[in-house]
Write a structure and sequence with these properties.
Distance between the termini of chain A: 27 Å
Shape of chain B: globular
Order of helices and strands of chain B: EEEHEEHEHHHEHEHEEHH
Helix content of chain B: 25-40%
CATH superfamily of chain B: P-loop containing nucleotide triphosphate hydrolases
Oligomer: heterodimer
CATH topology of chain B: Rossmann fold
Number of domains of chain B: 1
Strand content of chain B: 25-35%
Shape of chain A: elongated
Order of helices and strands of chain A: HHEHEHEHEHEHHHHHHHH
Number of helices of chain B: 9
Largest sheet of chain A: 5 strands, mixed
Helix content of chain A: 55-70%
Number of strands of chain B: 10
CATH architecture of chain B: 3-Layer(aba) Sandwich
Largest interface: A-B, 23 and 30 residues
Number of helices of chain A: 14
Radius of gyration of chain B: 18 Å
Number of domains of chain A: 2
Radius of gyration of chain A: 25 Å
Largest sheet of chain B: 6 strands, mixed
Chain lengths: 369, 249
């Protein structure tokens, strides 16, 4: 234990005494957070949607048909009642619910201004905003075409859309982006640091000196991981505080729970870095491999585009991405206020990744040349 | 420990088609200063890497401090000290931090580390520099420090791979005084070099040419056998008679 702690302390000294590393570790993520949180764009397909048709007329069926025909939506069967639709929204089965009230067709025919209700799970803020605009466009076009055919005055062709965002009522996409970006940055920086770490010692020749000592492989890997784990945790804590204070990021769930999950997640992320580091010979190779892997991990994390709108096989592959699971947990806890039970599945996956990558790094590290 | 510290029998290491160490047989007695001579690329470093458990041999047998180089590499590592050709302490750590790091890795207690650090700094006359970063020290001091750190856990055998490369003659002399000091305490010293004046300081020598061990004996015996006035001559004669291309590698 004393050995592990002093080895870890030495790692801290290496970082602290190198100004470039220190800046990379502390400043870069925050500067990037400020910039990235204000730039991103999206396109979304196959949003799971539920339609509650209380009117059950030709007109309401025609509107439902429009949604079914749209590439942006995938209509899920099931809910026939408002309560059922609410449940689908809550469970995540549906991201949007379109409710067509009784008397829709009559109002439309009389040109009284018909109403429909669109409810959105706005947990994934930016996505929700876009889904909302898709829905509104479909409804507006339906109303306009209908009105033209009936010869109603343009003013009366309107269909009132009542939108209600759930979880992220303001549909503020920064609420949704900030925690995600924070995750991405801590992951990138942490993985890069650990990936370069052992490679650097190979370059310096200091690794050979360690390899002729009786140090155990697990101890060595743990000592490399621990300091970056502590730094990563500190960075996340600080970043979450900054997010809440400066970006108005919501904190609906337990921060302690989130940090607990982060503790597991970081072992996985840093484990990947160390695994890379044991496999390469130079820091440059480590950089390339890390960027390659991180690019895929981040793009497939659901951070920028929802994993739900990716093709089936990509969705399957995304299950093997620890970043995806942690992004999911972060959003669920912060925006939805999810408790331990609701995030059990992704947390279980993260635990498996943490053990797996750490184990692989220890296994791959050789004390012989 | 009495008797034999290192035994090698037909020890061989191949890298692809190239045989870096070719059926080398020798033993090193406990407590002696054993010099391993050879030109650059003669296989000295490969041999030392096998004996320190960093590299598995391709064939042959060897044991270090009674432990087998195939199966008991971790046990070997507990019994030896090693100073590599490249300076391998951390330049960004202070002298004391480097000492403490290796002391801790070898499982020495905090008080033992403190006592040995003070002792070591005094011996090297580095007392003032304990809290200086190692990177700021002159090369000669770095080498002496690296040697002392390799001996910190009081190993039975210490391996030195060209420890005096690039160091001025005065510092080299001081370095050899440190080596004799360690040998005087009963530590077996296995040292590679290509400085022939240093060869004269060794109790016994092995001379490697193109991966093979071509001569083995005390400096006196070797000079006599080759009818040479100095180790320089012995070495040149062996090197010329040796492999045509291999020695140049």
């Amino acid at each position: 234990m004393r050995r592990l702690l002093y080895l870890s302390w030495v790692e801290v000294l290496h970082v602290v005494r190198d100004r470039a590393s220190l800046a990379q570790l502390l400043l870069v993520p925050f500067i990037q957070l400020v910039i990235l949180a204000n730039a991103a764009t999206f396109a979304i397909h196959d949003t799971p949607a539920a339609i509650v048709d209380l009117d059950a007329t030709a007109a309401s069926r025609a509107l439902s048909q429009r949604f079914a025909a749209s590439p942006h939506f995938r209509i899920i069967g099931g809910p026939r009642s408002v309560a059922g639709a609410d449940e689908a929204l809550r469970s995540g089965e549906a991201t949007m619910v379109l409710a067509i009230p009784r008397g829709f067709e009559r109002a439309l025919v009389r040109g009284e201004g018909a109403r429909v209700q669109v409810q959105l799970n706005a947990e994934k803020g930016s996505a929700a905003g876009i889904v909302q605009s898709y829905a509104q466009r479909i409804i507006a076009r339906f109303g306009a075409e209908r009105g033209e055919r009936e010869g109603t005055a343009p003013a009366l062709r309107r269909i009132d859309v009542q939108t209600r965002g759930w979880y992220n009522t303001e549909l503020d996409y920064r609420q949704y982006m900030v925690p995600g970006i924070l995750v991405a940055l801590v992951t990138l920086v942490g993985t890069l640091f650990t990936a370069q770490n052992i490679a650097r010692e190979k370059e310096l020749g200091t690794l050979e000196q360690l390899n002729v000592t009786p140090i155990s492989r697990a101890e060595f890997i743990a000592a490399k991981l621990l300091p970056f784990w502590v730094l990563g945790m500190a960075e996340l804590t600080l970043g979450l505080g900054l997010g809440a204070a400066v970006f108005g990021m919501p904190v609906r769930g337990s921060l302690l729970l989130l940090l607990g999950v982060a503790a597991v997640y970081l072992v996985a992320a840093l484990g990947i870095g160390l695994l890379i580091s044991t496999a390469v010979d130079t820091q440059q190779q480590a950089m390339f491999v890390t960027f390659f892997i991180m690019m895929i991990y981040l793009l497939m994390s659901g951070l920028y585009t929802p994993v739900d709108s990716m093709p089936g096989w990509v969705r399957m592959a995304a299950e093997a991405n620890p970043v995806k699971h942690f992004v999911e947990v972060t959003r669920a806890v912060l925006i939805k206020g999810a408790g331990a039970a609701e995030i059990a599945k992704p947390v279980g996956m993260l635990g498996a990744f943490a053990a797996g990558f750490f184990g692989l790094a220890v296994w791959r590290y050789r004390k012989t040349a | 420990m009495t008797g034999v510290a290192i035994v090698a029998k037909g020890l061989t290491r191949r890298f692809g088609g190239f045989t870096a160490v070719d059926a080398v047989t020798f033993d090193v007695r406990a407590g002696e200063v054993f010099g391993f001579l050879g030109a650059n690329g003669a296989g000295k470093t490969t041999a030392i890497r096998i004996l320190t458990g960093l590299l598995a041999p391709s064939s042959g047998a060897a044991s270090v401090a009674g432990f087998d180089v195939y199966r008991e590499r971790e046990a070997i590592k507990r019994s030896i000290g090693y100073m590599s050709q490249r300076f391998s302490l951390y330049n960004d750590l202070t002298v004391r931090e480097n000492i403490r790091l290796y002391g801790t890795i070898y499982g020495l207690s905090a008080s033992v580390i403190r006592a040995r650090t003070d002792n070591l700094l005094e011996r090297l006359r580095l007392g003032e520099s304990g809290s200086k970063r190692v990177g700021t020290l002159p090369l000669g001091w770095k080498q002496k420090l690296a040697f002392s750190v390799a001996l910190l856990h009081q190993p039975r055998i210490v391996f030195l791979d060209e420890p005096t490369g690039g160091v001025d003659p005065v510092t080299r002399r001081q370095f050899w005084e440190l080596i004799y000091g360690a040998a005087g305490q009963g530590t077996t010293v296995f040292v590679t070099t290509h400085y022939m004046d240093e060869a004269e300081y060794c109790d016994r020598l092995g001379i490697m040419v193109a991966g093979r061990l071509d001569a083995l004996g005390t400096p006196h015996e070797l000079k006599e056998r080759f009818g040479a006035g100095s180790m320089d001559e012995v070495f040149l004669r062996l090197a010329r008679s040796g492999a045509p291309a291999g020695a140049a590698a």
